[in-house]
């Protein structure tokens, strides 16, 4: 079974509310989509969000990489040659990892379809049910508490609280949110690089002093500041430290683990450059006894589904799930085998990603 063609599109999904972090504000998911077709009628789908503030990949760059380098390299390739096809994708051009992730997702989708297995089974199997957190955008405290209440009413039992935009008021913001909802939802903090190490230690110490327990703190300091991460860990505070923007790929994950610079690693397909790379990071973390989070950017139900399948197959090492892209969207335009119903993600037994229809997509010529 050979790849006979590829098609590119742009998927647009309005968000329920604007998504606000220390790095950016957006009100719409607008992702590149690739569909790989085979000579015997199968289609595999991949998706890539343009998260310029984190990955550096714009929509134009992603589409150009897929159209000019990655897509053509895959034409005529045998779907069964998954490793070789992923190698071609990784070597097609430098950078633009989001485009590579989209292409790999489509390749894994096709490969699993050719085996007649849902992707998570082709990856080793598991129990096809996950529970994700929901991200609470950084806003004034009252709005954030209202958003936490709304999320809890939707059934979310873990919330990822965005801070780092106004460091001076973050302790008060976190303590107020903790006082309002702790005990009804596990609280995760994500500062998206908005603090420095000294500020982070001060914030976490203030939370400890107040007896306000948080499940983890994600990427408080700039991505390149490994010394800062080490200093935060050395301060011996209660909140576990999760590396996100500091841990893009296998090499960076290894550097973090070698220096013991984080308690957990957030694996994302868009940072790693696809499933093959994300699996390698998971394997490394498993060998070092480190737990991972499976995370996402602002992703719809194609790439978030692929991440969910990977997480289901590697629950031995992936213990925390932040796959809330589809739940942040106003609707889910993907008819596939993965259902995102608020906090609960389930997968049925259709092969691959089981995608039979995608609406709200503009196919490009
Ligand atoms: C959407 C996901 N829960 C999330 O928060 N991801 C962010 C970055 C996403 C973005 O800016 O598009 C993160 O973990 O930092
Ligand atoms: Mg993060």
Q: Care to give the gist of this entry?
A:
By secondary structure, the chain is of the alpha/beta class. The chain has helices spanning 52-55, 59-74, 82-91, 97-115, 119-122, 141-153, 170-181, 197-210, 226-234, 250-258, 269-272, 275-287, 303-313, 325-328; strands spanning 3-20, 25-38, 43-48, 129-131, 134-136, 158-162, 186-190, 216-218, 241-243, 264-267, 291-294, 318-321, 334-335, 338-341, 344-347, 357-358, 361-363.
Question: Any chance you could write out the topology, listing elements then pairs?
Answer:
Elements: E1 3-20, E2 25-38, E3 43-48, H1 52-55, H2 59-74, H3 82-91, H4 97-115, H5 119-122, E4 129-131, E5 134-136, H6 141-153, E6 158-162, H7 170-181, E7 186-190, H8 197-210, E8 216-218, H9 226-234, E9 241-243, H10 250-258, E10 264-267, H11 269-272, H12 275-287, E11 291-294, H13 303-313, E12 318-321, H14 325-328, E13 334-335, E14 338-341, E15 344-347, E16 357-358, E17 361-363
Parallel strand pairs: 5-6, 6-7, 7-8, 8-9, 9-10, 10-11, 11-12
Antiparallel strand pairs: 1-2, 1-17, 2-3, 4-15, 13-16, 14-15
The structure holds ligand LOXFGALJ and magnesium ion (MG).
The ligand C[C@H](N)C(=O)N[C@H](CCC(=O)O)C(=O)O binds next to loops.
Describe the protein in words:
Its cofactor is Mg(2+). Substrate binds at residues 24, 135, 160, 296, 298, 322, 324. It holds the Pfam family MR_MLE_N. It contains 14 helices and 17 strands. It has 365 residues and is α/β, with parallel strands linked by helices. The chain folds into two domains: 3-116 and 358-363, 2-Layer Sandwich (Enolase-like, domain 1); 122-357, Enolase-like C-terminal domain (TIM Barrel). It has an eight-stranded parallel β-sheet with strand order 5-6-7-8-9-10-11-12. Strands 3-2-1-17 form a four-stranded antiparallel β-sheet.
